[in-house]
Design a protein that fits this description.
The radius of gyration is 20 Å and the shape is globular. α1 packs parallel to α14, α4 packs across α5 and α9 packs antiparallel against α10. The chain is mainly alpha-helical and 337 residues long.
């Protein structure tokens, strides 16, 4: 029962990173210098994101709902001890969505207002991605203390530090890397395609470099990642597989194999998340009083049954609908299919 819910949580997080993360990455890319290609880049991003960007938030909502109903004590800990970064995250999501919508549907389309929307879209994408990483980095520090009465210890210390902020930078690099790879296949403009390829190449290295900084920053934490990571044969195998995909990625890019390039990039990120899961499972987070396991924090069996049934039945509608959405907007109109 709990395993089914953990599967949905893991799958939803993965899909949110692969699709929603690429949307954030597209906004981050708009902050980078593009010269004469800036307008062309903006159009490609608008066309790529326009039909699906709202649907991608469904995966984050699904995680929140599962935690709220299936693991209420974990939900309470997260929303209480990490309420400051959670509010910052929600603020970024709202501003980003408004900016993207306004610049797309603004009836005036004045250059000045378009520039404001674009800046807001890019900065809020960077802001939101950063806070997602900070929240992720706060889960296994052991500084969440629901019993503390001190404001700093209860609400600041759990997320404030070098390690969470390095994790935030790591997530920013991952999202921007995914966006660069995905956008290669969204344009026929050779100059724009070359720019995305160059950015993907640089950002892939930045993912590796920022990941190394995450490991280094964790040395001062209660649970250093380096020691835990290399004690597990599974995580070692995952690391070697991710390295092999790094080589395959550039082979497929040079061969202009768009689908394989996207698949390999998604595979790299999947392996990163899998390694993170292996290190922490079956614990959801680490508090000052010890780890909090999904099994210990589960709701009553009757509630879990209802939640599982709702997820299974909902999947019968969600996945076909998303497939049809992508087919319509990514391959043409219904008449062309």
């Amino acid at each position: 029962m709990i395993e089914i819910l953990l599967f949905f949580i893991g799958a939803s997080l993965l899909l949110y990173v692969l699709f929603g993360g690429a949307d954030y990455g597209a906004g981050i890319l708009e902050l980078l210098p593009a010269g004469s290609l800036r307008d062309s880049q903006k159009k490609v991003i608008n066309d790529a994101m326009g039909p699906v960007w709202e649907a991608n938030h469904m995966w984050l909502i699904l995680v929140v709902v599962i935690l709220f109903m299936g693991f209420p004590s974990i939900f309470t800990l997260l929303m209480t001890s990490l309420h400051i970064p959670m509010v910052a995250l929600l603020f970024g999501i709202v501003v980003r969505g408004c900016a993207f919508t306004f610049r797309h549907y603004d009836a005036v389309q004045a250059p000045q207002s378009q520039n404001v929307y674009t800046v807001l879209f890019g900065t809020s994408s960077l802001w939101t991605a950063m806070w997602l990483g900070i929240i992720a980095g706060s889960l296994n520090r052991g500084l969440i203390d629901p019993l503390s009465t001190d404001f700093h210890e209860a609400y600041i210390a759990p997320w404030w530090g070098l390690y969470p902020f390095c994790m935030g930078i790591f997530v920013v690099c991952i999202f921007a890397f995914l966006a660069s790879v995905y956008l290669i296949g969204e344009t026929e403009n050779l100059d724009l395609k070359k720019m995305f390829i160059k950015r993907a190449f640089i950002l892939n290295y930045l993912v590796v470099l920022s990941g190394a900084f995450v490991f280094a920053a964790s040395a001062d934490e209660r649970t250093p990642l380096f020691a835990d990571f290399f004690e597990s044969k599974i995580t070692m195998a995952i690391m070697m597989a991710a390295t092999a995909l790094f080589i395959a990625l550039w082979f497929f890019i040079r061969k202009r194999q768009t689908l394989l390039t996207r698949t390999v990039a998604a595979g790299q990120i999947t392996l990163i998340l899998a390694g993170w899961y292996v290190l922490n499972a079956p614990n959801a987070l680490l508090t000052a009083q010890g780890p909090v396991s999904f099994y210990e924090a589960a709701a009553p069996l009757a509630t879990l049954w209802q939640l599982v049934m709702a997820l299974l039945v909902g999947s019968l509608f969600i996945f076909p609908s998303l497939f049809y959405l992508m087919k319509v907007f990514k391959t043409g109109t219904t008449e062309e299919m």
